[in-house]
């Protein structure tokens, strides 16, 4: 069902309550998501901004027909060609094949690569304008690598100014309420941070440049309409300010410890190290996660939030555990900045996991402060005291 956003803008997207993973199985979406598409009725032209994911293509087109005869759509703006935004395009264009599609040059290349269709593409770049009549218009702003090379924003100068930001400023968050002031703030902001940490953090230098560029335009702004989650209606600049913080090697006074454990030896080490950290730095938040049991994207979000991380694993077949190896690969892709790290773990007869973890952390761009801590077999009281001392020393190195 379409929902009115302003007098001239309707939300015509899809709320996906069933979504549990995104990007295949790479990202968990515990609160579902939405695929936000928008219909702008200008004085002389009507424009559709983005579509929805392919499984909902017929549903999307059917609901769109209830809002407007499809042949009255003067233009389709594809801000980003990933299939969660463009998936319904084939079904839509089957019915209105000559309607122009405004996108970047890279957007056209990706749409052609996805759907192999020779549609009526119109390439745009930063500063290009689509006139809607009576002084109203859409201005396009290229935003490459937020988070694909083809991404762009669209700024509508009517109704106080509305920025359609595609993946920037979004959250994987399903809600029947459209606006940020209508949902639980803490829950929504956590999903916004998780989205940034797991999808956009790797491109933080580009995020910083683009957000600063948009801020410098001094555009009147009443709303920010992203492609996932709720619309920023109340104080929309708050998420812009938060992105500038997140993009700037973000950290708080937190240390995250992620580990895996076969027979609890590495777990005991993790808990003892945590006690040592708290003894040395009582105000520091310390969080522990079993990487084999906890959601990997939530762990990465906590690491993004932290000033330092510790990663532990027993040595298994001369390597670290499957869960920790996978987490290290994800850390590499995150491109964390300004974070310190170290490894720890128990072993029986070879003990290679520490070196493997340390190398993985270093390859991920973290500052590995020492060679880590290894313990043979099950730590006894004296060994656990050593772990606590290691935690104190680690905290003092930060």
How would you summarize this macromolecular structure in one to three sentences?
This protein has two domains: 3-246, Ribonuclease Z/Hydroxyacylglutathione hydrolase-like (Metallo-beta-lactamase, Chain A), CATH 3.60.15.10; 254-396, 3-Layer(aba) Sandwich (Rossmann fold), CATH 3.40.50.360. Helix content is 35%, strand content 22%.
Task: Outline the structure in words.
The protein has a seven-stranded mixed β-sheet. Strands 17, 18, 19, 20, 21 and 22 form a six-stranded parallel β-sheet that branches. The protein starts with a strand and ends with a helix. The chain has 398 residues and is an alpha/beta fold. It has helices at 57-67, 83-86, 89-95, 105-115, 185-200, 204-216, 237-246, 265-280, 296-305, 322-334, 353-363, 381-396; strands spanning 3-4, 9-11, 14-16, 21-22, 27-28, 33-35, 38-41, 46-49, 75-77, 101-103, 121-123, 129-133, 136-142, 152-156, 162-166, 223-226, 254-259, 285-290, 308-312, 340-347, 367-368, 373-376. α10 (322-334) links the parallel β19 (308-312) and β20 (340-347). It is built from twelve helices and 22 strands. The longest helix has 16 residues, at 185-200. α5 (185-200) crosses α9, α6 (204-216) runs antiparallel to α7 (237-246) and α8 crosses α12 (381-396). The radius of gyration is 24 Å and the shape is elongated. The chain has two domains: 3-246, Ribonuclease Z/Hydroxyacylglutathione hydrolase-like (Metallo-beta-lactamase, Chain A, 4-Layer Sandwich), CATH 3.60.15; 254-396, Flavodoxin domain (Rossmann fold, 3-Layer(aba) Sandwich), CATH 3.40.50.360.
